[in-house]
Each structure stands twice: as C-alpha cells, then as structure tokens.
Amino acid sequence: MCSNPGCAGPGTEDPVVVQQWLDQSDAWFRETIRRHGWAVQAVAGDEPRRRPAFAYTVGLWGFGHPELVVFGLPQPDAHRLLNAVGELVRAGETLRPGETVHGGPDDTDLHLRLLRLPNAHQVTHTAQRLYRTDGGQVVPALQLCWADQAGRYPWEPGFEHPRWLQPLPGTFAA
Q1: Using 50, 70 and 90 to split pLDDT, how confident is the model at 5?
Q2: In sequence order, what DSSP letters do the residues of 86-124 get, joined into one string?
C-alpha cells in the first residue's frame, strides 16, 4: 500500500508519459518531505517468487542521515515502523550499523538490528533519484532487521519466518 497516487507506475513505456509520471511522483515526494520531513515508499512483494515486500524512507538524507529500509512486514506495519524510527532521527539521534534499537510504533517492544545496506542504489530508487546528483555519492541506507518473537534474527538458527522475507544486506535488488 502506497499513499503516493503514482506509485503503481505509469502503465506504459512511452518515454513522454514515463517522464510526466516521474515528475508528478517527484512533486508528491518533495511536498510530503517538505511537510513531514520524509516520506515512505512502499514496494509490493511477490510471495510465489520469494520477492519480499519492502518499504524505505525518502528524506532522512535531508537530515544528514542514511535512509532506512525494512523488508518483509505488511505495508502498514512497515510504514509505522519507519516513521517511528524516523522520529528518532528527527530528535537528533544518529543510528549506526550494528546498533540494536528497542521500542517502536505504538509503544510496542521491537528489536531491530541496524545493518549497512551496501547496494542502497539498487533498493532505494526514489531516494537516489531525488537526492543523488549526477555522478555523485550514492545516498546511503541502513536496513532495519527485525527479530522474531524469540528475539532471533534471520541469520540465526531457528528464525521462525522464511529467510527470504528479510534478505541479508547486499543480496537483494529491486
């Protein structure tokens, strides 16, 4: 689920229509970022093909902070989670790879491990389009990996969900 009215795509490969669609989408993102500090881009998954749904922030780079990406959660939950962690950034926290963040939306107890996403340019397309200058630095991102009910992460034995729901950083491209 995406609140951006253009997130479904232009429905054609006509270059003029595609450019018009991108212009409208970028305008929506810029206005949302101006009003709220960042936006969330959601991308639908494809379970039969083991392609997880994911969502990411667009605009935290404007705070001088890497964007945030989360895989494998229902879109409303991913949206709430990214906004809750985004509020930490707005409050002045600098989140770093390797850290664990506790807390979350609606006062739930979340256990999130922050990992550097080495291929952010292959996942956070909208953030790259809005913030990356021609030939400039890739806009960095951190992947928020969530633990299961027992506190295990996808790379740990016994993780209760299919591992493909949370691909390890660098192993997934959109």
Answers
A1: very low
A2: HHHHHTT----TT-EEEE-GGG--EEEEEEE-TTGGGT-
Does a structural domain hold residue 74? Answer: yes
Q: In the block, which residue shows the tokens 């270059």?
A: 15
- How many separate domains does the chain show? 1
For 147, other C-beta atoms within 10 Å of its C-beta total: 17
Q: What's the rounded Cα separation, in Å, for the pair 39 and 22? A: 16
Q: Would you say residue 170 lies in a domain? A: no
Q: Domain of 25?
A: 15-161
**Inter-CA distances, 155 with 127, 148, 166, 168, Å:** 27, 11, 9, 8
The reported pTM is 0.87
The owner of tokens 């990992």 is: 115
Q: How many whole angstroms from its chain centre is CA 22? A: 19
